[in-house]
Amino acid sequence: MALVVAGGGVWLALRPGEDRAAMEGVPPPQTDDAQRRGADEQRAARDAQARKAAEDARAAEEEAARKAAQEKAAAEAAQRRAEEQARADVAARQQAEAEEAKRRAEAEARAAEAQARADADAKRQAEAAEIALRLSEQDRKRVQVALSSLGYGTQGTDGTFGPRTRQMIAAWQKGQGAPETGYLTAGELAALRQQAATALARYDDEQRKIEEDRRRADADARRQQEEDARRRAEEDQRRQPPPSAPVAAAPPPSAASADGSYYGEHCSGLKGEEVSCRAVSAIVTGGVGSFRWRVGRCGNGSFGSATFKIDPTGALTGTVMGFNERCLPSGGQIWGQYAAGRITIQSRGNLRATLIRK
To answer: pLDDT tens digits, residue range 44-64?
Structure first.
């Protein structure tokens, strides 16, 4: 019997002369050589089996390692793809957000530009509307009083609409729900005056008192200046030496010969302005006369006056009271001549008058 290794198995082959008993596990009589050969064959079979098992185990490990490497590579590739996709998604989202932000910024810029144009148009229209109101200085002062009384302090009532007043007008308009132009329309002006009616009435009363006090002070100043001018004229006249009588001259007319009613023209004007003339009339009694004229630029109640005296020689001296460029009382001296029913008068300024007896 021989031990045969084939196909991964161990087979026993009967040699000639071996019977069935040997196949059934009954050991035939063996010699020492046969026993040694059998032991060698068994060891070889076991070694072969061990090698085969080791090779199978190594192959299994290699296969497992290969599969693990493949799975790892696949996982890493999947992770890379996922990361790349995530980066791509982030980049796409960022780009979309940037484009959206750009669109919003452009839209806001367009809206702001359109609003700025609309505000500028509204401001121009409001400015034109306010100009059409033709507000006087006193009207502007009353607007500033009204705004300040309502809590929109203009920091003064000078009658000038500066940046502060414009800012307060806009603030008041905002409170009314109106466009914040800083310029008043007719309707807004009426509403502002109505809201501040009490404060405006008080302000108007104060202004009337101030104006009355000013008129009284001006009248007192005019009277004082007239008196001062009259005294100076009289003093100057007293200091003048009497005129010498001309040789072989006709006897001088008496002052009384100038008495009577006169009419004529008085001309005057401020320095640098055109001289204006107006009709005047005068009455001379005892050689003393006077006339007056209206000074329209200083108010309907303002009059200028001239008082004069004619001496026996026909020489005329006197004083004049008028108003300067600020409508404050102003006086001076006049002189002239009477002859044959005609009086001529002049002054150091541009006053002149010609009076003819009726």
So the answer is: 999 999 999 999 999 999 999
Cα separation, 354 vs 345, whole angstroms: 6
Helix and strand numbers, DSSP H then E, in the chain? 6, 10
Torsion of CA 84, 90, 93, 96, to 10 degrees: -80
CA gap 143, 189 in Å, rounded: 8
Pairing of strands 260-268, 276-285: antiparallel
How far, in whole angstroms, is CA 68 from its chain's centroid? 76
Which spans in 134-196 are helix H? 137-149, 163-176, 186-195
pLDDT of residue 248: 45
- Crossing angle of helices 163-176 and 186-195, rounded to 10°: 80
The percent of residues in the chain predicted with pLDDT above 90, rounded, is: 44
Which tokens sit at 156? 């003064």
CA–CA distance, 335 with 184 (Å, rounded to integer): 55
pTM equals 0.40
Stretch 68-85: mean pLDDT:
91
The position carrying tokens 């009954």 is 26
Give, as one character, the DSSP assignment of residue 296: G
346 CB neighbour count, 10 Å cutoff: 16
| Residue whose pair of structure tokens reads 């007896």 in the numeric block | 357
State the Cα–Cα distance between residues 95 and 91, nearest whole angstrom.
6
Q: Residue 194 in contact with residue 146, Cβ under 8 Å? A: no
Question: In whole angstroms, how large is the CA radius of gyration of the chain?
Answer: 65
Q: How many CB atoms lie within 10 A of CB 51?
A: 10
Angle, alpha carbons 292-296-301 (nearest 5°): 70
**Residue partners of 140: CB distance under 8 A and separation at least 6:** 159, 160, 161
